[in-house]
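User: Write out your own:

AI:
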Amino acid sequence: MKKALVLAGGLPQIELINELKQRGYYTILADYSVRPLAEKYADKFYRESTLDIPKITEIALEEKADMIISCCTDQALSTVAVVADKLGLPCYIDEQTGWNVTNKREMKRIFKENGIPTAPFVITDTEDVNVEMKYPLVVKPVDCNSSKGVVKVYRAEELKEAIKGSLAYSRDNKAIIEEFVDGEEISVDAFVTDGKVEILCTSCSEKINNDRGFVIWKGISPATDDANIIHKIYSIICKIVDAFKLNNCPMLVQMIKHGEELSVIEFSARTGGCLKYRMIEKACGFDVIKATVDLFESRKVNINLIEQKKMISDEFLYCNAGVFDHIEGADICKKNGWITEFYELKRKGTEFHHVGCSGDRVAAILIEAENYDEYVDKHNKVAASLKVIDVSGNDIMRHDLYPVL
């Protein structure tokens, strides 16, 4: 039997494991979590960090894996590329490209060298750095995801502490400092086949009410129907594809729209995380998980997209400190059609401390609507109905981070 080693055990990886099983694979999951969501779907589980390249290599060799694969997660993609190169396994990008698309230092360098619009930046490995840029600034680790260690800085006296925090998250011991670009954040999922770009889905990302961090609570699609902006988005993605020598891969590109101008925050050769794979399928009829497996099997990906007819929103719930027991209100929301899909992202007994990154989400929601007014009505009914209950019976849901519109 063929064997596939899957890195990361979140919601999209459940779908990935199911797809692999349909193709006859014995599935082995590696994830640092004690009880990742996808554990019970895999045939075998290793509790190991997906970033531990020697350990992942050891598992692949021990299990005689025919494939090492991940989807919809950022840093594990570099591990996949490295181990696949080392063991002669299939991967849609090579080791160097895996590094370039997951390390912000290399990414921003390539952006700058190829005229891809992005904010002014500097890279540092020390807190004592002289920065001649306009405040506010954004400080982030060069090699981390889920908004970990990302801080908005308003004054020079705050910068050193922000750099210290970001460096603590960086395996490369480097942080990037860049000018904050004000505007609307647009997330673009695309797919590249034989060097040709197809835009699958655009969405506007909204962050939680916090003037320092960048944790997302909602994305709503489509982001725009402005043909000029869509053309600019497409042109920028094509430049990225050329600059990074991408031929066949999924893509997630995050941009800021300021007036008629676009600035790229970052991108990766993968699909967006959590519910994005479902948003894409609802938006354009394209199964990006299936297509990703096709790439690893060196199959040609055929892209036949349908026109998006509805507004689609993927939304996330967060908690105050407490030990999670269950969520109330989801069933009535689904029964009444306010929610299309609902997923718990944490197991009973998970302890929450504070909201620091997107990995602190307790649940994910998909809402579909014919127009914005219908969407607002559905969202507000959901917001009034849901509760996150802890083991003491208290509602610990951060209702302030899932606001009534």
Remarks:
- The first strand starts at residue 2 and ends at 7.
